[in-house]
Amino acid sequence: MERRRLRAGCLFALALEIAGTLDTQRLVDAALGLAFEAPEGSIRIDPENNHTWLTPRIGKVRRDGGFDIVWEAKSAVKPDPYLAVHAARQPLDQRRDARVMKPGIRRLMEDLRGARVLVVHPRDAEGDALIDQLKRIGCNVRGLWPPPAENSPRRRHRFPFVEAAETPDFTASATDDGPTFVAIIDYENPTVLKRLLDSNAHGVVNKPIRPFGILSSLVLARSAHGYARRLQGKVQKLEETLKARRDVDKAVKILVTLKKIGEDGGL
C-alpha cells in the first residue's frame, strides 16, 4: 500500500511539473511516457495505452510476512491490458486466465480480436489515436477519409465522424443487417443531434478522443446492435406467423362460402 502511494505521489509530482496546472486532462497527457525509479525498480507510463511498465517477480512468502524473490525479469515489461499481443501467440483457451474468464466475456474478447473496423475520420492526431487504440485491442482497422457513400460490407464495425456542418457525403446509417455503427462527434448542437438520431448509431465517441473508453464504447455498441438484430428476427417471425394465420382465415371464409358450412366445419 505504501509503495503504491509513493508511486502515485511521484507520478503526480512529475506530471504537475510538466503540465504546470491542476487541469485533469493536461495532467493525464503529461503523465504519458513518464518514467522514474521506484523502490521496486524502473516504472514507466506507456504512452500508447496509459498503463504501467513493471518488472515481474515471483516471490515465496516467509513466516514474517515478507517475500523471498525466486525469479525476476531482467527488465520492465510492456503492459498489454487488452491481451492483444499475448493472444496472437497462443489460443485463448490455453491461457491461464481463460480458466477464470466467464464464457460470455471470453467470446466477447475473441470476437473483438481480428474484428474488421472502418474508421471514417480525417487523418489527424485524434484519428490516429483512435486507430492505434483499436489496433491495440486487436481489431483489424482501416482508416478512410472522405466518407464513403455506402457502408462497406466487409467491415463489421464502423466509426464515422459526424460533422457539425452539413456534409452530403454522409448518407450511410446503421441498419439491422449492417455493421456496428459508433458515431464520433466533437460538438453538440441541434444539427449534430439530428444527424446522430438519423444515423441510428449504436454508440457514440466524443472528441477529444482518448484511449480510455474506446473498448467500452465498442462493447456496448456491439451489444446494442446484436440485441436489435435479435429483436428484428423475432418481429420477422411474428409477421410471418400472422401472415400465415391470415391466409388460413381467408381460406376458411372461402370454404365456408362455397360449402355453406359453419366456420368450425371449415377448420
Written description of the protein model:
By secondary structure, the protein is α/β, with parallel strands linked by helices. It has two domains: about 1-80, no CATH class; about 100-220, Rossmann fold. It contains eight helices and ten strands. The chain has helices spanning about 1-20, 25-30, 85, 105-110, 125-135, 190-200, 215-260, 265, and strands at about 35-40, 40-45, 50-55, 55-60, 65-70, 115-120, 140-145, 155-160, 180-185, 205. The strands form three sheets. It has a five-stranded parallel β-sheet. Helix 5 (about 125-135) links the parallel strand 6 and strand 7. The radius of gyration is 27 Å and the shape is elongated. Mean pLDDT is about 75; it is low at about 85-100 and about 165-170.
What topology emerges from the helices and strands here?
Blueprint: H1 2-19, H2 24-31, E1 35-38, E2 41-45, E3 52-53, E4 57-61, E5 67-72, H3 84-87, H4 103-112, E6 116-120, H5 125-137, E7 140-144, E8 157-160, E9 180-185, H6 190-198, E10 203-206, H7 214-259, H8 263-266
Parallel strand pairs: 6-7, 6-8, 8-9, 9-10
Antiparallel strand pairs: 1-2, 2-3, 4-5
Helix pairs in contact: 1-2
Molecular shape: elongated
- Broad CATH class of the largest domain: Alpha Beta
CATH architecture of the largest domain: 3-Layer(aba) Sandwich
- Calculate the terminal CA-CA distance, rounded to whole Å: 78 Å
Tell me the strand percentage band. 15-25%
CATH topology of the largest domain: Rossmann fold
Helix content: 40-55%
Determine Rg (CA atoms, Å).
27 Å
How many structural domains?
Answer: 2
| pLDDT < 50 runs, ≥5 residues | 87-99, 167-171
Task: Give the spatial strand order of the biggest sheet.
Answer: 7-6-8-9-10
- The CATH fourth-level homologous superfamily of the largest domain: Response regulator
How would a crystallographer describe the biggest sheet?
Answer: 5 strands, parallel
Q: Give the helix/strand class.
A: alpha/beta
Mean of all residue-level pLDDT scores:
76
Order of helices and strands: HHEEEEEHHEHEEEHEHH
How many DSSP E strands?
10
